[in-house]
Amino acid sequence: MSAKPGLQKSGIGSYLVRTGLEELDTLGEAFVFVLGHADYYPRFGFAAETARPFAAPWSGPHFMAIRLAEGGPATGTLTYPRAVSG
Fold it and tell me: Does residue 52 lie in a domain region?
């Protein structure tokens, strides 16, 4: 998720994150993971500590998660599909 540089700090990013989290909560998702700025995503409840039990190639302080509901795995390995070019 990103906002065009000239439109940053106008609330678009926050709107997108909040709307996405609401939709995922409605769908019954237990966790949401992000790889992003460690000073930005915690304002929405994301924390590196929540993601720590899950292994990923990008683990570290910028790998964060938020728990939306009880349930789901306590640990695991996250994978990301390779990009497919056109």
Answer: yes
The full 3-state SS of 34-58, as one line of letters, equals EECCCCCHHHHCCEHHHHCCEECCC
pLDDT-based confidence at 82, cuts 50/70/90?
A: confident
- State the total domains in the chain: 1
Q: DSSP code of 82?
A: P
Domain that holds residue 34: 29-70
**H/E stretch holding 32:** strand 31-35
Tell me if 75 sits within 8 A of 53, measured CB to CB.
yes
Q: Domain for residue 11, yes or no?
A: no
Does residue 83 surpass a pLDDT of 80?
no
Which residues are CB-contacts of 67 (< 8 A; sequence separation ≥ 6)? 30, 31, 50
Query: Which residue in the block uniquely carries the two structure tokens 């906002």?
Result: 3
Inform me whether the pLDDT recorded for 80 exceeds 90.
Answer: no
| Domain contains 62 | yes
